[in-house]
Design brief:
With 196 residues, this protein is α+β, with helices and mostly antiparallel strands. The chain has a single domain, classed as Metal Binding Protein, Guanine Nucleotide Exchange Factor, Chain A (Beta Complex), CATH 2.170.150. It contains five helices and eleven strands, in the order βββααββββββαβαβα. The strands form two sheets. It has an eight-stranded mixed sheet with strand order 10-3-4-9-8-7-6-11. It has a three-stranded antiparallel sheet with strand order 1-2-5, with no helix packed on it. The structure holds zinc ion (2 copies). One zinc ion binds next to α1.
């Protein structure tokens, strides 16, 4: 069954097919924290140690069903990941590499407590913690689970790449490969203020 994704106000909706092929991780990196801060969504998005609950998936399995015109894109720097959000209500949605040739999307899961059961049912519990050095509280590193998770993600990336399915990516125009929304790239002083 597809996993349903929606922004806080409901204008933007998406569905992820075959959620069992995705890999759930909690990312504690400063950039994910800065993204939540940029949107004013730290309370909703970050766990008490500054982690963002993310599922790594193949972009061709994700499709927007409503409100794609509200999609917005930012990047913390000229080389950073593209970070996608719903402009209607500033809900973080996903991050992608800048080039669709690397077919990967990290979908930001809705971390409200009432969504926890749905997240666990679709993806299993979060067993992988990434970038724990920048956690804002004590978080155990998960070396073996991380290695297994990274290998699973790479397998999916390679499969989408070799099959040509990487062109089916809702964040990039099919023909030109350009992002569907031009990214707003922050200046270094804007970025610094978000690192806190
Ligand atoms: Zn919205
Ligand atoms: Zn991160």
């Amino acid at each position: 069954m597809d996993f349903a994704i929606r922004c806080e106000c409901g204008a933007v909706q998406a569905a992820l097919a075959e959620p069992q092929r995705a890999t759930r991780v909690v990312c504690y990196c400063r950039d994910c924290q800065a993204f939540a801060r940029f949107l004013g969504q730290t309370a909703r998005t970050l766990n008490p140690c500054g982690g963002t609950d993310i599922v790594a998936a193949s972009p061709h399995r994700l499709r927007f069903t409503h409100g794609v015109e509200a999609l917005r894109c930012m990047s913390l720097s000229g080389k950073g990941l593209l970070r996608w959000y719903a402009g209607c209500c500033s809900t973080p949605l996903a991050n992608t590499p800048r080039d669709r040739a690397l077919p990967y999307v990290g979908i930001v899961l809705d971390c409200l407590p009432e969504s926890a059961a749905a997240r666990d049912a679709a993806f299993g519990p979060a067993r992988i913690a990434l970038n724990t050095a920048s956690a804002t509280g004590p978080v155990a590193a998960t070396r073996f689970a991380t290695l297994a998770g990274v290998l699973k993600i790479l397998r999916n990336v390679m499969a989408a790449r070799l099959s040509g399915k990487y062109r089916d990516n809702p964040f990039f125009e099919r023909d030109s490969g350009r992002p569907v929304v031009a990214p707003e790239v922050l200046t270094s002083s804007q970025r610094r203020s978000l690192y806190g």
